[in-house]
Amino acid sequence: SVYLAKKGHDVEIYERRSDPRLATQDLGRSINLALSDRGLRALAGVNLAEKIKTEYAIPMYRRVMHDKQGNLTYQPYGKENQAINSVSRSKLNQMLMDEAEENGVKIKFGQKCSTVNLKEPHVVFEDCQTGELERVGANLIFGADGAFSGVRTAMQKTDRFNYSQKFIDHGYKELTIQSGPNGEFLIEREALHIWPRGSHMLIALPNPDGSFTCTLFFPFEGNSSFSSLDTNEKARRFFEEEFSDVLPLMKDFDKEWEQNPASSMVIISCYPWTRNGKVALIGDSSHAIVPFYGQGMNSGFEDCTVLNELIEKHGDNWDLIFREYEQSRKPDTDAISELALRNFVEMRDLTGDPDFLLRKKIERKFSDKYPQKWVPLYSLVTFSDHVRYSEALDLGKKQDKIMEQIMSLPNIHEKWDTEEVEEAMLNLVESQ
To answer: Where are the alpha helices (DSSP H) in 186-317?
Structure first.
């Protein structure tokens, strides 16, 4: 909306929820957002990146893995000074609303999307308090209404519209590590903490007030699942066994376990994303993904970057803009959806594995010496906003094949930093 308003368009936003800036506490999900280069690039386009980084974000330079005994291992996210940023969802939303209004965007809250006419186009909204209906016409409609989009629902009724959704077997529950007596952080501040346990994991992201927002990713059903931990006592016993070093830091554990819901995670795929040169889907409404690469918000913001570049390229030719937008973005959002699922396995199963950690160490050493020949997949996705997700996925698959051969070398744990291994990698890279 800010991009469009800055280009002189009259923009109105209709939002189902109430204005979060008027609430006395956070509304909706509290799960922190991981803001990285793709999202920052979109925000920089409207002069907001530095403000968010300095006022709202905490940089996270590395993963810190906690095993069952409380031992720690470390894995940098990128090169020196490269970090992903922990940002409060509610604070970011509120700041973006303020910025939109300052640029002339009108926001109407408490408005439920009732029906969508894709041809004219218009939308009928229902006031959530009064039930009153309002018909709103527009030259263009953008469905930025999330994974269960009302705009997409209207598209699903049209000919040759492909759509799929899949809920994964795991859900998530939010918990909190409170700050210390003087507001201090009780575990390392500038890091994303992971407690990998195979079929499940706990993560923690820092907040400016000294607390950490924790998320337990856990199966819904089974012997060890949300359904089996149906009392606070069972949940506490489970945490004492699995996450003994963090449980004492969760002062409100019983209350939060009982009150905070176990929420589901859905993957959305659809095509086309536009209709009649007048209606377009953007963000989760067209490509909702699981959160395990920290790219859900970043990929949605990148939609804005791409659309803005196409507007500058094609002016007001919205037929051409929308056609090029969906054709260019679809392969990339499919790629990040696949990568996000793969990263769930990495975070849950592999971050505590010695072979995996050694592989990452070998990759990092090789990349430091030959940056033009090797950029690790995570860096391609997170710190390389000029590389398309689809290109990163293809390069990552090639790297996987090379590293499988390197890790199969005899005595790799003893000779990983030798010239022999370096030469082997160079030969494999150059033979690709």
So the answer is: 232-242, 253-259, 284-287, 296-314
d(CA 116, CA 70): 53
Q: Is 160 left (phi over 0), alpha (psi -120 to 50) or beta?
A: left
Between CA 366 and CA 369 the distance in angstroms is: 5
pLDDT for residue 26 is more than 70: no
Residues in the chain: 432
Which tokens belong to 316? 């007001």
The three-point CA angle 288-289-292 to 5° equals: 150
The per-residue pLDDT of the chain, averaged, comes to 94
Dist CA 312 CA 314 (whole Å): 6
CA of residue 102 relative to chain centroid, distance? 27
- Residue 2 near residue 103, CB atoms below 8 Å: yes
- Name the β-bridge partners of 127: 111
Query: pLDDT digits over 178-232, tens only?
Result: 999 999 999 999 999 999 998 899 999 999 999 999 999 999 999 999 999 999 9
Q: In which order are the strands placed within the sheet that holds 84-87?
A: 33-35, 84-87, 57-60
H-run or E-run covering 63: strand 62-66
Vertex 376: Cα angle to 373 and 380 (nearest 5): 95
Pair of tokens at residue 20 = 């979060």
